[in-house]
Design goal:
Elements (H helix, E strand, L loop, with lengths): L1 H6 L8 H26 L2 H23 L6 E3 L6 E2 L2 E2 H17 L8 H30 L2 E3 L5 E2 L2 E2 H22 L8 H19 L4 H17 L6
Antiparallel strand pairs: 1-4, 2-3, 5-6
Helix pairs in contact: 2-3, 2-4, 3-4, 3-6, 4-5, 4-6, 4-7, 5-6, 5-8, 7-8
């Protein structure tokens, strides 16, 4: 994953090299998330990953067709392979980031059984959505999907997209929480993975993608959870 992220800006924007590296990074993130979850939860993690992949694929099919819940957008044919005009790798990226965040924030508590679950779900959804502050501007810049103009937008991306991410991430987080159950083993690796995504993405937008606004917005968004996560991994 790290190698793919570092190599990406070394090639021309919109080129085939970047297209395949995007798939490599997303697939590697999925492998990281799944491996971490299996280590902590055993076979239940595989079921959680499968559930998230299927659910988010359906959401992406509905979203790209109807505009709900993310806003009006269309995938181009550049990020393959595709099924029903949706790149398959997108759902694996959803599963990867969800499982990484699930592991990084497994110790979030507020004092009660129900409130613990709700607070953890909300924090997880926020951490997952924070990643999209980087992801969407970069992928749109590469031409992998296109947004219809919106009156309220961030770098051409409708703000409603992030509300869609929050709602979708809440459900993927719930799937991970319910299916995985209590962890058998502890590891700080998911914090390392999430922090790596935040740091390399920030550096990428500052030094290579020439967008300080996204660098600051994404860095602050993910940075909040980078600070919070180490306190909640036990």
């Amino acid at each position: 994953m790290v190698a793919g992220m570092i190599a990406t800006p070394l090639f021309a924007q919109g080129g085939d090299e970047r297209r395949w590296l995007a798939v490599v990074v997303a697939a590697a993130l999925f492998v990281c998330g799944l491996a971490i979850a299996v280590h902590a939860h055993g076979r239940r993690a595989v079921l959680a990953a499968a559930g998230i992949v299927v659910f988010t694929f359906l959401v992406e099919v509905i979203g790209s067709t109807t505009g709900f819940p993310f806003g009006a957008y269309d995938y181009t044919d550049r990020l393959g392979p595709q099924l029903f005009d949706v790149p398959v790798v997108v759902s694996f990226a959803w599963a990867g980031i969800t499982l990484v965040v699930h592991g990084a924030l497994r110790g979030v508590r507020s004092g009660g059984a129900v409130s613990d679950w709700v607070i953890r779900l909300a924090v997880m959804a926020g951490a997952i959505t924070a990643w999209d502050v980087f992801l969407d501007p970069q992928m749109v810049g590469e031409g992998y999907w296109v947004w219809q103009p919106a009156s309220v937008a961030f770098r051409g991306i409708p703000i409603v997209n992030y509300l869609g991410w929050l709602s979708t991430a809440s459900i993927t987080s719930a799937i991970a929480l319910v299916v995985c159950g209590a962890p058998r083993r502890a590891t700080r690796l998911p914090v390392v993975v999430y922090t790596t995504l935040a740091v390399l993405s920030t550096i990428g937008f500052v030094a290579f993608f020439d967008d300080l606004v996204v660098a600051v917005a994404g860095g602050l968004s993910m940075g909040v959870f980078v600070v919070v996560a180490p306190r909640h991994t036990t």
